[in-house]
Amino acid sequence: MYDVNPDVVTDLKDLSATLANVEAVIDLDSLRNQVAALEEQAARPDLWDDPEAAQKVTSQLAHRQGELRRIESLRSRVDDLGVLYELAEEGEDEDARAEADAEREKLRADIAAMEVRTLLSGEYDEREALVTIRAEAGGVDAADFAEMLMRMYLRWAERHGYPTQVYDTSYAEEAGIKSATFKVEAPYAYGTLSVEQGTHRLVRISPFDNQGRRQTSFAAVEVVPVTEQTDHIDIDEKDLRVDVYRSSGPGGQGVNTTDSAVRITHLPTGIVVSCQNERSQLQNKATAMAVLQSKLLERRRQEEQARLDSLKDSSSGSWGNQMRSYVLHPYQMVKDLRTEHEVGTPSAVLDGEIDGFLEAGIRWRRTQ
């Protein structure tokens, strides 16, 4: 055996120990048993007699298999890395050593990301997420900023291979959007994205100001878990006002020529949801009802949490609190005001590179 740098050996042991802790929290044996049980269900010949239940089984199976593959792959990479360093020392190969160093840094980041996953243990953290973005103070700049945030989250999902569905977009008159709601279909999407709840602030030279002045604008992000059949969210039809209207796109262009878009107002709470992405009014109503159920579920969760801790941590439940600044002028920086995490590349962040902010937010929330 050839001598590997003692610091590298120590680092590899630390990485292995961290991964062992992650494996213990995730409980690999339990995860393997879940995968086996779901595979058994998926193989049943009568599975698709109930398409909704079948879809749930196949979705859960894919999620669990993916998680098992990820953690087994990390363990394999940790084991292989020690061998890679030995081979580099044996051959006195600087290129191989550099390759091993690069893999060690990548492995450190991947294990840290998996470690963050173990911190998502809330009641609804495993679920898919519904994200709503609204333009707030700042006029046309705020509407433009809201659209920038929507693109940021959709690009983040795309980078990770997570499917998304945009349910509703309300376009502003001059530029940008007044509001939008979309779904992120991925395991732990709610637990991960819920740390994005709050008011986001943009500072820049406004492209809409003919005098080139610096403007500050705001947009709000709301994240709720997708409801499941077991949630028992009862909604009385008498508590609803349902309006139908014609779908429209940016610039007033008609998506179609029928009044198929649906807006539902829940009268007791004042919650308003809408959907216009389907051609059928019935489909849009069904989707809007699902969104309403998710928002009522999150409202119930917040009320239960408020009773438990008497709102001692109001910052984590309220999405009216300013939580991140995106500064494009006079300097370049994005900074989270809760975690102090910051980067000097706003363009990369707005293109979906937000994993550092998400991980910092999840760790911060755990300490609160």
Which short descriptors sum up this protein?
2 domains; 20% strand; three-stranded antiparallel sheet; Alpha-Beta Plaits; translation release factor activity, codon specific; 48% helix; Pep_chain_release_fac_I_sf; PCRF; alpha+beta; protein biosynthesis; Methane Monooxygenase Hydroxylase, Chain G, domain 1; PrfB; 11 strands; 368 residues
Briefly say what this structure is.
With 368 residues, this protein is of the alpha+beta class. It is 48% helix and 20% strand.
Please tell me about this protein's structure:
- By secondary structure, the chain is α+β, with helices and mostly antiparallel strands.
- The protein folds into two domains: about 5-115, Methane Monooxygenase Hydroxylase, Chain G, domain 1 (Up-down Bundle), CATH 1.20.58.410; about 130-365, Alpha-Beta Plaits, CATH 3.30.70.1660.
- The chain has helices at about 5-25, 30-40, 50-90, 95-115, 140-160, 190-195, 280-310, 315, 345-350, 355-365, and strands at about 130-135, 165-170, 175-185, 200-205, 215-225, 240-245, 260-265, 270-275, 320-325, 335, 340-345.
- The strands form two sheets. It has an eight-stranded mixed sheet. Strands 6-7-8 form a three-stranded antiparallel sheet, with helices on one face.
- The protein starts with 5 loop residues before the first helix and ends with a helix.
- The model is unreliable at about 310-320 (pLDDT under 50).
